[in-house]
Amino acid sequence: MKKSYLAMKTDAAVASDLIDSDFKEIGVAAKKLANHVIMLGGLGFGTSFLKWLASFAAIYLLILDRTNWRTNMLTTLLIPYIFLSLPSILFGLFRGDFGKWLSVIAVVTRLFFPKHFPDWLEAPAALVLLMVVAPSLFADTLRGDWIGIMICLVIGCYLLQEHIRASGGFRNAFTKANGVSNTIGIVLVMVYPVWALILHVL
């Protein structure tokens, strides 16, 4: 009787171990499935969405700097950031004939009608000119490479620390009325390169 009880206990333990190992295998398979689904669809969508978001955040910060956010920060660094992070659809549009016409109009206006060329248009005109005349090494290779992503991350980190310094500390950057929107914009600028580098490493 005692021996049969021990045998039953051992059988139950073996069955429990088998069920546990099956559940572990199911868990591993579910994780692999989730990772593959994310890699095929979710991550690609997330990366492109963050790229659009970061580009518009950089444009927003550039506009803000030209209107009422006058600081000593080197916000012209947003020009190469936008160049490197602008989605391919918009980049192709500005690199084509549309961008060439804009560049011609900007250059002619700046040369012959300087009084009618406002100061706040200099940065956007420089961005369009950069997109039009950039060699394919920068326009095609560097933009999609991890080096371009690293440049974007360095620009975002620099702008964040300069903004915190200009605001008078980390707390002021997140609490002042005029600082919160700038901080959110800079954080959005940093999210895309961080995410893209994580994906590149994985």
Describe this structure in words.
It is a single chain. The protein is mainly α and 202 residues long. It is 84% helix and 0% strand. It contains nine helices and no strands. The protein has helices at residues 2-67, 78-85, 88-95, 97-112, 122-133, 136-142, 146-167, 170-175, 177-201. α1 packs across α2 (78-85) and α2 runs antiparallel to α7 (146-167). Mean pLDDT is 78; it is low at 4-9.
Question: Secondary-structure map with pairings?
Answer:
Layout: H1 2-67, H2 78-85, H3 88-95, H4 97-112, H5 122-133, H6 136-142, H7 146-167, H8 170-175, H9 177-201
Helix pairs in contact: 1-2, 1-9, 2-5, 2-7, 4-5, 7-9
InterPro entries: COR413 (IPR008892)
Subcellular location: Membrane
Family: Belongs to the Cold-regulated 413 protein family.
List keywords for this structure.
mainly alpha, 202 residues
Strand and helix order: HHHHHHHHH
Distance between the termini: 57 Å
Give the overall silhouette. flat
Low-confidence stretches: 4-9
Radius of gyration over C-alpha positions, nearest whole angstrom: 26 Å
Helix/strand structural class:
mainly alpha
Put the structure in a nutshell.
This protein has 202 residues and is mainly α. Helix content is 84%, strand content 0%.
